[in-house]
Design goal:
31% of the residues lie in helices and 37% in strands. It has 2 domains: 1-42; 44-139, K homology (KH) domain (GMP Synthetase, Chain A, domain 3), CATH 3.30.300.20. By secondary structure, it is of the alpha+beta class.
Length: 140
Amino acid sequence: MNLTTINVKLTNAAFKLEATNQQGNSLIMDAAQSIGGSNLGFRPMQLLLSAVGGCSAIDVLSILKKQKQTITHFEIEVEGDRANIEDYSIWKTIVLHFKIKGLVDVDKADKAIKLSLNKYCSVSKTLEPTATITYKLSVN
């Protein structure tokens, strides 16, 4: 078993929450103003988009570094579109736009992204049953 524990604690009188992991790292979440939040942190659904971007970034960077590619700038813009299902919503489509600069072979970057999204990224595999995940790549 690979047990992970996250502690989520209310930090104000409304909806501001601090999530802390086992290593002591933390992030702030909040609700939308329309339901009484203050927009002082990420909303939980935004964290899912951040997680798929972060997971794939780690995979792609790791693969490209092993291939001796020189990266001077790396970012991913993640866009998601939600669909309402009864009283909740899910991510229906997610597009990751990889923006890479440096001495990077486009074919190697493309292959690294495909490996991440189709094989290695646990977050994209978790979202895959309900969301269509695609990508765009810009190199230099």
